[in-house]
Amino acid sequence: MSHLQNLLLDTLLGTKHVDSAALIKIQERSLCVASPGFNVMPSDVRTLVNGFAKNPLQTRREGLYFKEKDYRCVRADEYSLYAKNENTGVIVVKTHLYLLVATYTEGMYPSVCVEATESLGDYLRKKGS
Question: How confident is residue 33, by pLDDT bands cut at 50, 70 and 90?
Fold first, then answer.
């Protein structure tokens, strides 16, 4: 298991409030690493990368289509994108090289998922990743 996958498992899934997580290479628009069983399709990678390429207000208005679900965007800015669909959600944090993606499901605390994902994003930005 790679160092990056260990980071995902320990710092995100280890909270018990992140269902799945992945790192996407922004430049290559490709999946770098993901938690076991989290299959991020190329169309989902494009959707997330494009979510940051647009004006954040446009992303907020349009929402996201991710993993065959429509998500209402509740936050969109230069570094963060939060979207929800009923009791599930996706948190995306941009670093220099990656998009860090975390999902939560019913029964999990979205605020814990956000805090863990943002903290890992800050760590990766400080490391130059």
Answer: very high
Q: Check: CB of residue 18 under 8 Å from CB of residue 97.
A: no
| Residues 74, 128: Cα–Cα separation, whole Å | 28
The residue type of 73 is C
β-pairing verdict for 88-94 and 80-85: antiparallel
The answer to whether 79 and 119 have CB atoms below 8 angstroms apart is: no
Q: Please name every residue paired with 93 in a beta bridge, in sequence order, or none if there are none.
A: 80, 100
4: DSSP letter:
H
Answer for the pair 96, 102: CB distance below 8 angstroms, yes or no. Answer: no
Note the pLDDT of residue 2.
Answer: 85
* pLDDT interval class at 125 (50, 70, 90): very high
